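Aim 2 progress. For Large ribosomal subunit protein uL4, the working sequence is reproduced below.
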Amino acid sequence: MEVKVLNVSGKETGAKVQLSEEIFGIEPNDHAIYLDVKQFLANQRQGTHKSKQRNEIAGSTRKLYKQKGTGGARAGSIKSPLFNGGGRVFGPQPRDYSFKLNKKLKSLARKSALSYKAQDNSVVILEDFSFDTAKTKNFVTLLNALNFSGERTLVVLPTASDNVYLSSRNIQKTKVITADQLNTYDVLNAGKLVFTTGSVKTLEEALAK
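Predicted structure tokens for this construct:
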């Protein structure tokens, strides 16, 4: 798949990039995408939820009233889950939600997501760029030049650039990452994918392994 290279002004440079069919042109595997996104979201969970059981509640353990003869149900402790302020039965406890996926499956999921974006013509290639200063105005100008203003945009750089990252940080629906941070969730969550010529090369080298 051949894509024209644009500059930061949104104009064609005359150069073209050949996107690898093994990465941007495969038959997408929906189940691999589902598993990878599920793992990504599960890994975001802190798992620190906690409720107290009856043995953790502060309170008296004396028997409230005699066992028989009251005409009501038996009760042994004020900490019973049946009473207001008592412990909770089978409440949430701290746990780790993360789970393991094979590297090949995660790679297949990323390739499938990228292939979907390529099919939708949502992949844009820019020549390598950087900003001299960290100004939001610089990034807004870039998005306007590409007609991506208001679009959910993911910009993928070959290496970290503080000025580019800081310039994009205050813009809604925009995220800047490096090629080695690319994941299936971010690809699918973006309306437009913006790669630089350098990040395409880095990505293809990583996924070709």
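The radius of gyration is 27 Å. This observation will guide construct design in the next reporting period.
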